[in-house]
Known about the structure:
The chain is α/β, with parallel strands linked by helices. The protein has helices at 61-75, 83-93, 98-116, 120-123, 143-155, 169-182, 199-208, 223-232, 246-254, 271-283, 297-308, 355-358; strands spanning 3-14, 20-22, 25-27, 29-39, 44-49, 132-133, 136-138, 160-164, 188-192, 215-217, 237-239, 260-264, 287-291, 330-331, 340-341, 352-353, 363-366. The chain folds into two domains: 3-117 and 355-366, Enolase-like, N-terminal domain (Enolase-like, domain 1); 123-352, TIM Barrel (Alpha-Beta Barrel), CATH 3.20.20. The strands form five sheets. The chain has a seven-stranded parallel beta sheet. Strand 11, helix 9 (246-254) and strand 12 form a beta-alpha-beta unit. The chain is globular, with a radius of gyration of 20 Å.
Amino acid sequence: MKITRISVHGLELPFREGSYRCRNHTEYGQTATIVRVDSDEGVTGWGEIAPLGAFYSEAFTGGVRAGLERLGPVLLGADPRETGKLARVMDAAMHGQMDVKSPLDIALWDIAAKAAGLPLAEFLGGRDGMSVALYRSVSQASPEIMLDSARRHVADGYRRLQVKVGDDPVLDAGRLQTIADDMDGSVIIFCDANGAWTSHDALRFVERTRGIDYVLEQPCRTLDENLVVRRHAAIPMVLDESADSLDALLRIHREGVADGVTIKISRFGGITRARRIRDLAVDLGLMVTVECVGGADIASAAIAHMSLSTPEAMRLHTVDFHNWTTVSNATGMPDVADGVMRAPVGPGLGVTPRDDVIGEPLFSCHAA
Ligand code: 0XW
Ligand code: MG
Protein backbone atom coordinates (compact mmCIF):
# COMPACT_ATOMS: atom_id res chain seq x y z
CA MET A 1 0.00 0.00 0.00
CA LYS A 2 1.28 3.49 -0.87
CA ILE A 3 0.30 7.00 0.13
CA THR A 4 -0.89 8.81 -3.00
CA ARG A 5 -2.25 12.09 -1.67
CA ILE A 6 -2.29 14.18 1.50
CA SER A 7 -4.94 16.88 1.80
CA VAL A 8 -5.16 19.55 4.48
CA HIS A 9 -8.51 21.13 5.41
CA GLY A 10 -9.40 23.95 7.78
CA LEU A 11 -12.50 24.21 9.94
CA GLU A 12 -13.75 26.71 12.55
CA LEU A 13 -15.17 25.13 15.71
CA PRO A 14 -17.08 27.73 17.78
CA PHE A 15 -17.62 26.75 21.42
CA ARG A 16 -21.19 25.75 22.32
CA GLU A 17 -20.91 27.71 25.52
CA GLY A 18 -19.81 30.78 23.58
CA SER A 19 -16.42 31.06 25.22
CA TYR A 20 -13.88 29.11 27.23
CA ARG A 21 -11.52 30.69 29.72
CA CYS A 22 -8.49 29.12 31.33
CA ARG A 23 -5.09 30.42 32.43
CA ASN A 24 -6.70 33.88 32.49
CA HIS A 25 -7.24 33.80 28.76
CA THR A 26 -10.51 33.58 26.79
CA GLU A 27 -11.10 31.84 23.46
CA TYR A 28 -14.41 31.72 21.55
CA GLY A 29 -13.69 28.61 19.54
CA GLN A 30 -10.92 26.56 18.01
CA THR A 31 -9.57 26.34 14.49
CA ALA A 32 -9.19 22.73 13.41
CA THR A 33 -6.73 21.47 10.84
CA ILE A 34 -7.92 18.18 9.37
CA VAL A 35 -5.63 15.88 7.43
CA ARG A 36 -6.81 13.32 4.90
CA VAL A 37 -4.38 10.67 3.69
CA ASP A 38 -5.30 8.66 0.56
CA SER A 39 -3.68 5.41 -0.52
CA ASP A 40 -3.46 3.53 -3.80
CA GLU A 41 -5.65 0.75 -2.36
CA GLY A 42 -8.57 3.06 -1.72
CA VAL A 43 -8.17 3.13 2.06
CA THR A 44 -8.37 6.67 3.45
CA GLY A 45 -7.25 7.92 6.88
CA TRP A 46 -8.14 11.07 8.82
CA GLY A 47 -6.54 13.06 11.60
CA GLU A 48 -7.33 16.34 13.37
CA ILE A 49 -5.63 18.95 15.52
CA ALA A 50 -7.31 22.04 16.97
CA PRO A 51 -5.00 24.20 19.11
CA LEU A 52 -6.47 26.41 21.80
CA GLY A 53 -5.60 29.78 20.27
CA ALA A 54 -1.86 30.31 20.36
CA PHE A 55 -1.50 30.84 24.11
CA TYR A 56 -2.10 27.35 25.42
CA SER A 57 0.54 25.07 23.89
CA GLU A 58 3.28 25.29 21.32
CA ALA A 59 0.64 24.63 18.66
CA PHE A 60 -0.90 27.39 16.60
CA THR A 61 -2.85 27.02 13.40
CA GLY A 62 -0.49 28.91 11.08
CA GLY A 63 2.45 26.87 12.30
CA VAL A 64 0.61 23.57 11.96
CA ARG A 65 -0.41 24.32 8.39
CA ALA A 66 2.99 25.62 7.29
CA GLY A 67 4.54 22.49 8.79
CA LEU A 68 2.11 20.20 6.98
CA GLU A 69 2.91 21.85 3.66
CA ARG A 70 6.54 20.97 4.27
CA LEU A 71 6.09 17.51 5.81
CA GLY A 72 3.26 16.08 3.64
CA PRO A 73 5.41 15.47 0.53
CA VAL A 74 7.94 13.50 2.62
CA LEU A 75 5.35 10.76 3.19
CA LEU A 76 4.15 10.36 -0.41
CA GLY A 77 4.82 6.86 -1.74
CA ALA A 78 5.41 5.38 1.73
CA ASP A 79 3.34 2.51 3.15
CA PRO A 80 0.88 4.22 5.54
CA ARG A 81 0.67 1.11 7.74
CA GLU A 82 4.31 1.52 8.79
CA THR A 83 3.46 3.94 11.58
CA GLY A 84 6.64 3.49 13.65
CA LYS A 85 8.92 3.84 10.65
CA LEU A 86 7.04 6.86 9.33
CA ALA A 87 7.25 8.58 12.72
CA ARG A 88 11.04 8.26 12.37
CA VAL A 89 10.88 9.51 8.77
CA MET A 90 8.94 12.58 9.96
CA ASP A 91 11.44 13.15 12.79
CA ALA A 92 14.34 12.97 10.36
CA ALA A 93 12.67 15.48 8.04
CA MET A 94 11.47 17.93 10.72
CA HIS A 95 12.81 18.52 14.21
CA GLY A 96 10.17 18.63 16.95
CA GLN A 97 6.91 20.25 15.78
CA MET A 98 4.80 17.53 17.38
CA ASP A 99 1.57 19.35 16.57
CA VAL A 100 2.34 19.16 12.85
CA LYS A 101 3.06 15.44 12.98
CA SER A 102 0.05 14.54 15.13
CA PRO A 103 -2.82 14.73 12.59
CA LEU A 104 -0.67 12.91 10.00
CA ASP A 105 0.21 10.15 12.45
CA ILE A 106 -3.45 9.75 13.54
CA ALA A 107 -4.47 9.41 9.87
CA LEU A 108 -1.80 6.73 9.35
CA TRP A 109 -3.15 4.75 12.33
CA ASP A 110 -6.68 5.13 10.94
CA ILE A 111 -5.50 3.54 7.68
CA ALA A 112 -3.43 0.82 9.38
CA ALA A 113 -6.37 -0.24 11.59
CA LYS A 114 -8.79 -0.12 8.66
CA ALA A 115 -6.40 -2.25 6.59
CA ALA A 116 -6.31 -4.77 9.46
CA GLY A 117 -10.12 -4.67 9.61
CA LEU A 118 -10.06 -3.65 13.28
CA PRO A 119 -11.38 -0.70 15.27
CA LEU A 120 -8.43 1.37 16.47
CA ALA A 121 -8.94 0.40 20.14
CA GLU A 122 -8.56 -3.29 19.24
CA PHE A 123 -5.69 -2.55 16.85
CA LEU A 124 -3.91 -0.75 19.70
CA GLY A 125 -4.05 -3.86 21.83
CA GLY A 126 -7.66 -4.26 22.89
CA ARG A 127 -10.61 -2.40 24.33
CA ASP A 128 -10.59 -2.58 28.12
CA GLY A 129 -14.18 -1.93 29.13
CA MET A 130 -16.74 -0.29 26.90
CA SER A 131 -16.65 3.29 28.12
CA VAL A 132 -14.39 5.92 29.64
CA ALA A 133 -15.43 8.48 32.25
CA LEU A 134 -15.59 12.09 31.06
CA TYR A 135 -14.71 15.30 32.78
CA ARG A 136 -16.22 18.59 31.81
CA SER A 137 -14.34 21.85 32.25
CA VAL A 138 -15.94 24.66 34.19
CA SER A 139 -14.69 27.70 32.35
CA GLN A 140 -13.17 30.42 34.55
CA ALA A 141 -15.67 33.11 35.61
CA SER A 142 -17.23 34.45 38.81
CA PRO A 143 -18.08 31.78 41.43
CA GLU A 144 -21.80 32.23 40.68
CA ILE A 145 -21.42 31.78 36.94
CA MET A 146 -19.11 28.81 37.49
CA LEU A 147 -21.63 27.23 39.83
CA ASP A 148 -24.34 27.57 37.17
CA SER A 149 -22.20 25.90 34.57
CA ALA A 150 -21.11 23.15 37.02
CA ARG A 151 -24.79 22.42 37.74
CA ARG A 152 -25.55 22.30 34.01
CA HIS A 153 -22.72 19.80 33.41
CA VAL A 154 -23.88 17.60 36.27
CA ALA A 155 -27.48 17.76 34.99
CA ASP A 156 -26.09 16.61 31.63
CA GLY A 157 -24.66 13.53 33.34
CA TYR A 158 -21.01 14.47 33.86
CA ARG A 159 -19.61 13.30 37.20
CA ARG A 160 -16.19 14.93 36.99
CA LEU A 161 -15.73 18.67 36.92
CA GLN A 162 -12.49 20.33 35.94
CA VAL A 163 -12.72 23.68 37.67
CA LYS A 164 -10.49 26.26 36.00
CA VAL A 165 -8.44 28.04 38.63
CA GLY A 166 -4.98 29.60 38.21
CA ASP A 167 -6.19 33.10 39.03
CA ASP A 168 -5.92 34.89 42.39
CA PRO A 169 -5.71 32.00 44.91
CA VAL A 170 -8.22 33.56 47.31
CA LEU A 171 -10.76 34.06 44.50
CA ASP A 172 -10.01 30.54 43.26
CA ALA A 173 -10.57 29.07 46.72
CA GLY A 174 -13.97 30.78 46.72
CA ARG A 175 -14.76 29.29 43.31
CA LEU A 176 -13.94 25.81 44.55
CA GLN A 177 -15.79 26.24 47.83
CA THR A 178 -18.96 27.48 46.06
CA ILE A 179 -19.00 24.53 43.68
CA ALA A 180 -17.95 21.88 46.22
CA ASP A 181 -20.64 23.00 48.70
CA ASP A 182 -23.28 22.43 46.05
CA MET A 183 -22.19 18.98 44.83
CA ASP A 184 -23.02 15.60 46.27
CA GLY A 185 -20.40 12.88 46.77
CA SER A 186 -20.88 11.44 43.28
CA VAL A 187 -19.03 14.34 41.66
CA ILE A 188 -15.23 14.42 41.60
CA ILE A 189 -13.66 17.86 41.35
CA PHE A 190 -10.34 18.60 39.67
CA CYS A 191 -8.89 22.08 40.16
CA ASP A 192 -6.86 22.82 37.05
CA ALA A 193 -4.60 25.88 37.13
CA ASN A 194 -3.07 25.03 33.73
CA GLY A 195 0.30 25.96 35.21
CA ALA A 196 -0.68 29.59 35.87
CA TRP A 197 0.23 29.78 39.56
CA THR A 198 3.55 30.34 41.26
CA SER A 199 4.21 27.75 43.98
CA HIS A 200 3.41 30.58 46.41
CA ASP A 201 -0.07 31.01 44.88
CA ALA A 202 -0.65 27.26 44.76
CA LEU A 203 0.24 26.77 48.42
CA ARG A 204 -2.04 29.62 49.47
CA PHE A 205 -4.85 27.92 47.53
CA VAL A 206 -4.10 24.53 49.09
CA GLU A 207 -4.03 26.05 52.56
CA ARG A 208 -7.37 27.84 52.08
CA THR A 209 -9.12 24.75 50.68
CA ARG A 210 -8.14 22.27 53.38
CA GLY A 211 -10.90 19.81 54.09
CA ILE A 212 -12.38 19.98 50.56
CA ASP A 213 -12.08 16.79 48.52
CA TYR A 214 -10.48 17.59 45.16
CA VAL A 215 -7.58 16.66 42.89
CA LEU A 216 -5.06 19.37 42.04
CA GLU A 217 -4.12 19.57 38.33
CA GLN A 218 -0.99 21.28 37.01
CA PRO A 219 -0.74 24.06 39.60
CA CYS A 220 2.50 25.57 38.26
CA ARG A 221 4.39 25.61 35.00
CA THR A 222 7.67 23.85 35.75
CA LEU A 223 8.33 20.47 37.34
CA ASP A 224 10.48 22.15 39.98
CA GLU A 225 7.65 24.43 41.08
CA ASN A 226 5.14 21.59 41.01
CA LEU A 227 7.48 19.53 43.16
CA VAL A 228 7.49 22.28 45.79
CA VAL A 229 3.69 22.20 45.86
CA ARG A 230 3.68 18.42 45.97
CA ARG A 231 5.98 18.32 48.98
CA HIS A 232 3.65 20.54 50.97
CA ALA A 233 0.21 19.45 49.82
CA ALA A 234 -1.36 16.25 51.09
CA ILE A 235 -3.80 15.95 48.19
CA PRO A 236 -3.79 13.93 44.97
CA MET A 237 -2.11 15.69 42.09
CA VAL A 238 -2.00 15.17 38.33
CA LEU A 239 0.18 16.87 35.75
CA ASP A 240 -0.93 17.81 32.25
CA GLU A 241 1.20 20.48 30.54
CA SER A 242 4.33 19.21 32.33
CA ALA A 243 3.89 15.69 30.97
CA ASP A 244 5.53 16.64 27.71
CA SER A 245 8.41 14.24 27.18
CA LEU A 246 9.87 10.91 28.17
CA ASP A 247 12.34 12.70 30.45
CA ALA A 248 9.51 14.53 32.18
CA LEU A 249 7.56 11.33 32.69
CA LEU A 250 10.55 9.56 34.20
CA ARG A 251 11.20 12.47 36.53
CA ILE A 252 7.55 12.69 37.58
CA HIS A 253 7.78 9.03 38.52
CA ARG A 254 11.25 9.11 40.10
CA GLU A 255 10.58 12.13 42.28
CA GLY A 256 6.92 11.32 42.92
CA VAL A 257 5.81 14.70 41.55
CA ALA A 258 2.28 13.49 40.74
CA ASP A 259 -0.15 10.56 40.94
CA GLY A 260 -1.27 10.82 37.36
CA VAL A 261 -0.45 12.34 33.99
CA THR A 262 -2.47 13.69 31.09
CA ILE A 263 -1.14 12.59 27.74
CA LYS A 264 -2.31 14.89 24.99
CA ILE A 265 -1.93 13.04 21.68
CA SER A 266 -0.77 16.13 19.79
CA ARG A 267 1.91 16.92 22.37
CA PHE A 268 3.61 13.67 21.41
CA GLY A 269 3.25 13.95 17.63
CA GLY A 270 0.36 11.51 17.40
CA ILE A 271 -0.63 8.04 18.49
CA THR A 272 2.74 6.36 17.83
CA ARG A 273 4.57 8.16 20.64
CA ALA A 274 1.56 9.00 22.84
CA ARG A 275 0.91 5.27 23.07
CA ARG A 276 4.50 4.50 24.09
CA ILE A 277 4.43 7.15 26.79
CA ARG A 278 0.97 6.00 27.90
CA ASP A 279 2.14 2.39 28.24
CA LEU A 280 5.20 3.44 30.19
CA ALA A 281 3.15 5.66 32.52
CA VAL A 282 0.83 2.71 33.20
CA ASP A 283 3.78 0.44 33.95
CA LEU A 284 5.19 3.09 36.30
CA GLY A 285 1.91 3.06 38.24
CA LEU A 286 0.68 6.51 37.23
CA MET A 287 -3.00 7.15 36.51
CA VAL A 288 -3.42 8.16 32.89
CA THR A 289 -5.72 10.50 30.99
CA VAL A 290 -5.41 10.33 27.21
CA GLU A 291 -6.85 13.34 25.41
CA CYS A 292 -5.79 16.06 22.99
CA VAL A 293 -5.74 19.82 22.87
CA GLY A 294 -9.17 20.13 21.22
CA GLY A 295 -11.14 19.39 18.07
CA ALA A 296 -14.42 17.75 17.13
CA ASP A 297 -15.58 14.24 16.19
CA ILE A 298 -12.39 13.06 14.45
CA ALA A 299 -10.26 14.11 17.43
CA SER A 300 -12.78 12.65 19.90
CA ALA A 301 -12.71 9.31 18.07
CA ALA A 302 -8.91 9.11 18.38
CA ILE A 303 -9.17 10.08 22.06
CA ALA A 304 -11.90 7.49 22.72
CA HIS A 305 -9.98 4.64 21.06
CA MET A 306 -6.72 5.44 22.80
CA SER A 307 -8.46 5.87 26.15
CA LEU A 308 -10.27 2.55 25.84
CA SER A 309 -7.08 0.71 24.94
CA THR A 310 -5.59 1.96 28.23
CA PRO A 311 -6.00 -0.51 31.12
CA GLU A 312 -9.24 0.43 32.87
CA ALA A 313 -7.67 0.28 36.33
CA MET A 314 -5.15 3.00 35.38
CA ARG A 315 -7.51 5.15 33.32
CA LEU A 316 -8.47 8.41 34.97
CA HIS A 317 -10.93 10.02 32.55
CA THR A 318 -11.02 11.93 29.27
CA VAL A 319 -12.86 14.64 27.39
CA ASP A 320 -15.61 14.70 24.70
CA PHE A 321 -14.43 17.64 22.63
CA HIS A 322 -17.05 17.00 19.93
CA ASN A 323 -19.64 18.08 22.50
CA TRP A 324 -17.80 21.34 23.18
CA THR A 325 -18.39 22.72 19.70
CA THR A 326 -21.39 23.64 17.54
CA VAL A 327 -19.82 21.93 14.50
CA SER A 328 -19.69 18.19 13.88
CA ASN A 329 -16.99 17.12 11.43
CA ALA A 330 -17.82 13.40 11.24
CA THR A 331 -20.66 10.97 11.91
CA GLY A 332 -20.29 7.83 13.99
CA MET A 333 -19.29 8.98 17.48
CA PRO A 334 -21.62 7.15 19.87
CA ASP A 335 -23.84 9.51 21.88
CA VAL A 336 -22.41 10.51 25.22
CA ALA A 337 -24.68 9.61 28.13
CA ASP A 338 -24.28 9.40 31.90
CA GLY A 339 -20.92 11.13 31.73
CA VAL A 340 -19.12 8.39 29.85
CA MET A 341 -17.84 8.12 26.27
CA ARG A 342 -17.69 5.04 24.07
CA ALA A 343 -15.63 4.55 20.92
CA PRO A 344 -17.03 3.58 17.52
CA VAL A 345 -16.93 -0.13 16.68
CA GLY A 346 -16.19 0.15 12.95
CA PRO A 347 -12.65 -0.26 11.54
CA GLY A 348 -10.03 2.44 12.17
CA LEU A 349 -11.32 5.55 13.91
CA GLY A 350 -14.79 4.32 12.92
CA VAL A 351 -16.11 7.77 12.03
CA THR A 352 -17.14 9.08 8.61
CA PRO A 353 -15.96 12.63 7.99
CA ARG A 354 -18.65 14.99 6.72
CA ASP A 355 -17.43 16.15 3.31
CA ASP A 356 -20.01 18.96 3.23
CA VAL A 357 -18.70 20.39 6.52
CA ILE A 358 -15.00 19.83 5.92
CA GLY A 359 -15.16 21.25 2.38
CA GLU A 360 -12.39 21.60 -0.16
CA PRO A 361 -8.77 21.24 0.97
CA LEU A 362 -6.68 24.32 1.67
CA PHE A 363 -3.88 22.50 -0.15
CA SER A 364 -2.86 18.99 -0.97
CA CYS A 365 0.18 17.15 -2.23
CA HIS A 366 0.18 14.09 -4.45
CA ALA A 367 2.49 11.86 -6.41
CA ALA A 368 3.42 13.25 -9.83
C1 0XW B 1 -9.64 21.08 29.02
N1 0XW B 1 -8.50 21.06 28.14
C2 0XW B 1 -8.23 19.73 27.62
C3 0XW B 1 -8.78 21.99 26.99
C4 0XW B 1 -7.52 22.70 26.71
O1 0XW B 1 -6.82 22.06 25.71
C5 0XW B 1 -6.77 22.69 28.02
C6 0XW B 1 -7.33 21.58 28.76
C7 0XW B 1 -6.77 21.10 30.05
O2 0XW B 1 -6.98 20.01 30.58
O3 0XW B 1 -6.06 21.80 30.66
MG1 MG C 1 -5.39 20.18 32.26
